[in-house]
Amino acid sequence: MNPSLFLEQVLVHRDRDFIIVNKPAGLLTVPGKTPDLADCLITRLKAALPEVLLIHRLDRDTSGLLVFALNRTAQRHISKQFELRQTSKQYAALVMGELTEEGSVDVPVCYDPSRPPLHVADPSYSKSALTYWRATEILQISGQTVTRVVLTPITGRSHQLRVHMQYIGHPIVGDELYAGELGVSLSPRLCLHAEKLSFQHPSSGKNVDFEVAAVF
Questions:
Q1: Are 125 and 113 in contact (CB under 8 A)?
Q2: Which of 103, 113, 189, 202 could form a disulfide with 74 if both were Cys (CB 3.0 to 4.6 A apart)?
Q3: Nearest CA to 151 among 196, 117, 213, 183?
Q4: How far is the C-alpha of 172 from the C-alpha of 164, rounded, in Å?
Q5: Residues 6 or more apart in contact with residue 143 via CB below 8 angstroms
Q6: CB 146, CB 94: distance < 8 Å
Q7: Where residue 36 falls among pLDDT bands split at 50, 70, 90?
Q8: Where are the alpha helices (DSSP H) in 39-91?
Q9: Per-residue DSSP letter, 24
Q10: Which residue numbers are catalytic?
């Protein structure tokens, strides 16, 4: 695809300091470890905007909002906000089964070297992981009950939302790693989307908010 056309399709916001894009599901944020995984979001963006700099990532199968810096000062400023948990992120998801009201999962998540690329919830692990969830709608897909939820991660561990939902018995629909055969059969994609992102603008200091609704 023409790089400029791709940028136009995913671009949500652009100014002198950063761009906000809506990453498609199924596309890596950065290149993988093997040549067949070279195609990724940042490579495509750099083809149109060579100055693009990485700040954070989404899993390959997760869609939604990402911010990329356009200069080193902005990269340092926004990256520091992520490091200090001063940003706000909200995800939309469909999970298996019926969930009502709201709650939280406060269990560390760590990589499982015996089953790559899986991660597991491990209460004994040293680094904390905290997710808040809120149920918004109960639906039926192919005769199965699913719940639309809003997920707010306080920490940013790899696979955190996916593992936390599995941990409480409600894996995310379409999750090939954690939802099992039934969960995968209900959707051709992982039903997880980064729908809201807020942080402090690196130049003005004002809070900026971005939102793109999920399409599942």
A1: no
A2: 202
A3: 196
A4: 10
A5: none
A6: yes
A7: confident
A8: 41-48, 72-83
A9: P
A10: 59
Tokens representing 201 are: 């603008």
Residues 145-156: pLDDT tens digits?
A: 999 999 999 999
pLDDT at 1 over 90: no
Report the b/e string of 177-198 with b at 16+ CB within 10 A: bbbeeebbebbebbbbbbbbbb
- The whole-angstrom separation of Cα 109 and Cα 165 is 12
Burial of 60 (0-12, 13-18, 19+ CB in 10 A): middle
Q: For residue 209, give every residue at least 6 positions away whose Cβ sits within 8 Å of its Cβ, in sequence order, or none.
A: 196, 197, 198
Inter-axis angle of helices 3-10 and 41-48, to 10 degrees?
Answer: 110
What is the chain's percent helix, strand, coil content, to nearest 5?
20, 35, 45
CA–CA distance, 204 with 83 (Å, rounded to integer):
20
CA 188 to chain centre: 17
- Rounded CA gap, 199 and 69, in Å? 13
**Residue ranges of E strands in the chain:** 11-14, 18-23, 63-69, 88-96, 102-106, 109-111, 119-121, 130-141, 144-153, 192-200, 207-211
* Whether residue 117 has a cis bond before it, omega within 30° of 0: yes
Identity at 179, one-letter amino acid code: A
The average pLDDT across 14-35 equals 96
Task: Give pLDDT tens digits for 54-92.
Answer: 999 999 999 999 999 999 999 999 999 999 999 999 999
